[in-house]
């Protein structure tokens, strides 16, 4: 269960980062409300998963899911550049997430 909560925390991090971009520096009301709502959900899910999972593992995987997801959302939905270097960097983040999960005990 803590792994599922951590995964959901990472997904909600992707949502709030996208909504933060849409808020245009917190100048648009509904994207700002969405940002704060999903941010609170993400932190809450992360904190519950940390009851069982080690800090370093949980935080690294949470930020990795958020970073990789935000990168993909930027490329797919916002038209951001996909270069070889950025793709390799994303694959390295994914590799780090997988290795962190595989090397964790709980």
Structure description:
α1 (2-22) packs across α3 (55-77). This protein is mostly helical and 106 residues long. The longest helix has 23 residues, at 55-77. The protein has one domain (2-102). The chain is built from four helices and no strands. The relative contact order is 0.16.
Low-pLDDT sequence parts: none
Overall SS class: mainly alpha
Count of discrete alpha- or pi-helical segments spanning 4 or more residues: 4
Summarize the main sheet: none
Indicate how many domains the architecture comprises.
1
Short description:
Its main location: membrane. The protein is mostly helical and 106 residues long.
Task: Describe how the helices and strands are arranged.
Blueprint: H1 2-22, H2 29-49, H3 55-77, H4 84-102
Helix pairs in contact: 1-2, 1-3, 3-4
Question: Which features does this protein show?
Answer:
4 helices; membrane; flat; 106 residues; mainly alpha; cell membrane
